């Protein structure tokens, strides 16, 4: 395959996207979890669950990309790419949903609750977590689009 | 064009999807707006804004479909379908974001605020509005997928 689509699975751009997703997801998870009782709020639990799904998915595909870039390019099978595309799309929708839920609840806590639901420091941690989740979603949808674009050329 | 893709722009399935989107969006807007001071909450304003964009978009494309089904099929130009695909995707992401924000804030109001933020009747109206927004999003993403699927066959 000479006409390589940058960003599709098995390229160095894809590796960069996957690593970015994993880094932002981990950052989002750390801002949300470390030393905070996040599990009192449904939206925050949802974010943690989705990030717990996204991080292994991105890291697995990053390993596939590392193998493909540095060792040996495996032949792309259409079934495998199809599964990757489906997984990417489902996870990116869930990521967007989780990021929006977190952002809106954090905003609601700040505007309505004052210091009742969360102190200044804690509230800004929730906001940062939502921002990291949005950045992770942007990279995730980019990966999903590139892989979807690759799919018809394999048939 | 004999091999008609059901659900793509200009078919009766597309007309049904567009009308469904408009109906659910209007229902969501009515549950949210009528007699309620929704503008105190950012998420609810976001939902109303997005629904205010979605309804004219769906109705316009429904009119195009009606014309195409009942009067005369116009030739599909690739630029126009491309614009429709872009608009569908952007609006469906925004719809999902608005639905998630509304749902999570409504849930947060109920679990944390009790009757402080909204009474039993008002809270269930916010929940119904979020549910209608989700249904509208499901139909919207279906339209977006069908039109995206149509796009490569036009090049």
UniProtKB/TrEMBL annotation, chains A, B:
It is a multi-pass membrane protein. GO terms for cellular component: plasma membrane. Pfam families: CASP_dom. Keywords: Cell membrane, Membrane, Transmembrane, Transmembrane helix. Residues 10-139 form the Casparian strip membrane protein domain. It is found in: Cell membrane. The chain crosses the membrane at residues 22-41, 80-106, 126-151. The keyword Amino-acid biosynthesis does not apply. Its main location: membrane. Homodimer and heterodimers. Belongs to the Casparian strip membrane proteins (CASP) family. This is CASP-like protein.
């Amino acid at each position: 395959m000479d006409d390589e689509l940058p960003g599709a699975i098995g390229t160095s751009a894809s590796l960069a996207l996957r690593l970015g997703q994993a880094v932002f997801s981990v950052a989002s998870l750390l801002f949300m979890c470390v030393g905070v009782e996040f599990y009192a709020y449904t939206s925050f639990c949802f974010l943690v669950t989705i990030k717990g799904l996204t991080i292994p998915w991105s890291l697995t595909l990053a390993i596939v990309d590392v193998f493909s870039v540095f060792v040996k390019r495996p032949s792309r099978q259409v079934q495998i790419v199809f599964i990757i595309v489906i997984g990417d799309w489902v996870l990116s929708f869930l990521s967007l949903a989780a990021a929006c839920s977190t952002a809106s609840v954090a905003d609601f806590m700040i505007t309505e609750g004052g210091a009742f639901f969360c102190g200044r420091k804690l509230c800004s941690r929730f906001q940062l977590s939502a921002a990291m989740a949005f950045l992770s979603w942007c990279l995730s949808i980019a990966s999903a689009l590139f892989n979807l674009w690759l799919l018809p050329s394999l048939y």
